[in-house]
Amino acid sequence: MGSGASKTSPQSSQHVFASETPVRFSQELVDSLQASTETDLTREKTLELHIQSRVAEELQRLEARESQILKDLEDKISSTSDSTTESTNVPSTTTPDQSHDHGGKDHHAKTDSDKLRNLGRESIQREIDQLREKLDGRKKIEPLDRGLEKAKDDVVKCLRTNDRRPLDCWREVEAFKREVGRLEKSFVDKVIS
């Protein structure tokens, strides 16, 4: 059923397109295209290699940048920890009572590092307090009413025993509805009064 026209012959690897307007190419262009050994596959491979080399260069650049940032941060941390250890190792000439009134260089170094530690502690403590307030503010889940719990269990038990005939559980479902209605009414009465 027309399959002969839709198949191409394996011998023909050239496509010829007919144009209504004459198209003219110079003989040099035609010769250079026919003499070219470059195929679609070689062009694709060349492009892929070019893309891979660009990606590799970009990755190397990013790795160098990240390692420089890491090195800078490590230097910064080590310099701050060195200054902190130096300031704590220097013996203080003031007594503890005098340090509050007449702080010296050692006192300022200690208070700066203590301030940083306390800021971290204070922010963490604030977050903990906020989370506790949120937890306390949430509604507490009250245990289910015993009558409602029994009605629910009866419905589940009936549906399991009558898994092919769930309509046989209408009595249990009605009892469950009555319990829910009773609880809804008591809740509305609490809210209104």
How would you characterize the overall build of this protein?
Helix 3 (40-89) crosses helix 5 (105-137). This protein has helices at 3-6, 27-35, 40-89, 96-101, 105-137, 146-161, 170-192. With 193 residues, the protein is an all-alpha fold. The chain is built from 7 helices and no strands. The model is unreliable at 88-103 (pLDDT under 50). The protein starts with a helix and ends with a helix. The chain is 73% helix and 0% strand.
SSE diagram, text form:
Elements lengths: L2 H4 L20 H9 L4 H50 L6 H6 L3 H33 L8 H16 L8 H23 L1
Helix pairs in contact: 3-5, 6-7
What features would you highlight for this structure?
flat, 7 helices, single chain, 193 residues, mainly alpha
Could you give a quick summary of the protein structure above?
The protein is an all-alpha fold and 193 residues long.
- Regions with pLDDT < 50 over 5+ consecutive residues? 88-103
- Report the order of strands and helices: HHHHHHH
Distance between the termini: 84 Å
Looking at the structure, what is the overall shape?
flat
Structural class: mainly alpha
Tally of alpha and pi helices: 7
Largest sheet: none
Give the helix level as a range of percent: over 70%
Rg of Cα set: 42 Å
